[in-house]
Amino acid sequence: MTPTGEALVGHARRILAAHREALLSLKGARADGRIALGCTQDFAERGLPDILRLFSDTHPRLRLDLRIGRSAELASAFARGELDLALAMRNGTSIDERMVLRETMLWLGSAHCLQRAGGEVPLALLDAPCSFRHAAIAALDGAGRRYRIAASSASLSGLATALKAGIAVTARTARMTTDGITRLDSAFALPELPDAEFSLRLRPDATTPARNLADLLTDMLPQSAPGQC
Predict the structure, then answer these.
(1) In the 3-class helix/strand/coil scheme, how is the chain assigned residue by residue?
(2) CA 77, 81, 86: angle at the middle one, nearest 5?
(3) Sheet with 97-104: strands ordered across
(4) What would the pLDDT profile of 10-24 be if each residue is shown by its tens digit?
(5) Do both 109 and 215 map to the same domain?
(6) 76-80 own/partner pairs: CB under 8 Å, 24+ apart
(7) Into how many domains does the chain fold?
(8) What pLDDT does 11 receive?
(9) Model's pTM, two decimal places?
(10) 22 is a domain residue
(11) Cα end-to-end span (Å), the chain
(12) Domain that holds residue 188
């Protein structure tokens, strides 16, 4: 895209954002009650904060109950009726879900990672069940590459520690890249990974504010991916 085109896209997004905020303010100014939102760790630092800031500004009397967790945990909580909305990695299809975004799954590690092309791949993985874990192992098995579990964790923070230490690599999206964690280049000769799909589940009896939040998540999360304007 040309610089002029990029400027026009940015201007259009600002106009749409202002329009959206005005509509939400009209809808949400008098709304009260609570909304229980479950979300995976992938969006807790990149994407969700800006969306919740806008939602809170336009729905000042609403209480948000946040649960940041693993996709399987959120699916169980949603099934038990503990969540109004659940944003998680898509593992199947359900009549109460909407597709939110698809992101490229990448091999990530430290710039000084010990792994090199052709050798045994040291993996850092979340504890099972985990779709990223399954994708990484399936890709390596399919390519006939040897690997070992060098580190495991129940949280992304534990995974990040292993990556920054340079003792392992993992499969995630670009949302996990940060100082000390980068996309591994072709020198590592790692196999291609599938895309990661994330969907939003909304209770059929959800309130209007909950539906407003669902619309915000659907509209804004794809724009929050690293590299987006």
Answers:
(1) CCHHHHHHHHHHHHHHHHHHHHHHHHHHCCCCEEEEEEEEHHHCCCCHHHHHHHHHHHCCCEEEEEEEECHHHHHHHHHCCCCCEEEEECCCCCCCEEEEEEEECEEEECCCCCCCCCCCEEEEEECCCCHHHHHHHHHHHHHCCCEEEEEEECCHHHHHHHHHHCCCEEEECHHHCECCEEECCHHHCCCCCCEEEEEEEECCCCCHHHHHHHHHHHHHHHHHCCCCC
(2) 55
(3) 62-69, 33-40, 85-89, 195-202, 97-104
(4) 444 444 544 455 454
(5) no
(6) 77/38, 78/38, 78/201, 78/203
(7) 2
(8) 42
(9) 0.80
(10) no
(11) 12
(12) 104-194
Hey, what are 148's tokens?
Answer: 């070992």
Exposed e or buried b per residue across 93-121, where buried means at least 16 C-beta atoms within 10 angstroms of its C-beta? eeeebeebbebebbbbbbeebebeeeeeb
Measured between alpha carbons, how far is 149 from 205 in angstroms, rounded to an integer? Answer: 43
Residue 169 sits in the same domain as residue 216: no
User: Tokens 């495991």 appear where?
Assistant: 152
